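Before relying on records like the one below, remember that each one covers exactly one chain. Contacts with other chains, cofactors or solvent are not represented anywhere in the record.
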Amino acid sequence: MEVKSVLEDHKVRAKSILVEMEVQQYLVLAEHLINSNPFQRKRVRGSKTVYSLLKRDFLEGCVIPPIVLAYTKDGGDFASNPMKAFHEEKTHFSLLDGLQRTYTLLDLRSEIEDPEVLTTFMKRRIRCEIYQGIDRLGILYRMLTLNTGQTTMSLRHQVEIMYIDFLDTRIEHVQLLREPEKTSRALSAYSFKDAIDGFNAYIARSESPLDRGEILDNITSLENISKETRDKDLFRDFILAWDRFIVAIDGLALRLPDDDLEEDLRGDEDGNASPRNWGSTGLRAFKRPQALSGFGASVSILRDAGDDVSLSLLDFSTLEIGGDGDEFMLSLNRSISTLNSRAKRIGNAQRLYFRQFFRALVSPSSGSFMNLVKSESEAMTSSLRIGI
């Protein structure tokens, strides 16, 4: 193993160490690496993928792009003794870029039957780039900027990477669900992605959904807002405030009249659907990502404007319908249907509507304070006035 260069990466404040090594030296670490990073995507399978071609190319002498690793041992000095680090400090390495290449090398080691071919393969040289001293923020940034291949991360995956350490935050009785686990019908169970979208709306003072470009923007600016966004207590306060609203809505037993019920259309993972019935019950109407993002944006906007509003003090014990419950549900569904018919971007219009709804609902200085009927009327009027 040879260290070829050591450069300072000022963006992530780490050393970038380029090394050349034999395949057999890298494979000492490889089996640990494929299980070491919870942010990695799943393995790509299929005989027609570009990764299946990599096996043949590598055996024919193709030089593969460098595999990128993070080395996070406090005070570690990889360059002075790289082989010792590979053998004795495996737990301090994680894989930033090159998961599929690593699987390919492991597969070849097990599939090659000819001893001479195997020996030649194991001695073939590859490059690795080691980021020494990189912190978690740097790891996330590098993973997203390096992820430019054929199988880009989904938006949901990127959001989870940004806030993965919030998933194990204990929030009293509330349950946060990863997407594959999103099956619970419990009252206080919420999609992790929806919760993070709402929390990001609170931090950004905007109900607009995240896109891939904004994920990277957020990563680059996390240092400036880290005191707020990395505060698990703030995230906890946000989720508990939302849960208090949802519990209050459940207690009102809101439901569309039987003659107007249709099966709800749930839409895609971002909720961008155009159902005739937005929600047949109060829970189905509000327990959606658009409502959660609108809630987050409205609370922070009101707070910045000087209103006496805070997540920890939001109390929905006085929440009232303010009129006939059936009529409220009909009016809310009609409003969403009108927005859907007019808006160029339906999801954005729905988020704007809920931002206006919660601005009216939770502001103590509002004439619609804790009144669902008045807040719904104000939300629709102001949304149309703003323009959709």
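The CA atoms of residues 98 and 388 lie 43 Å apart.
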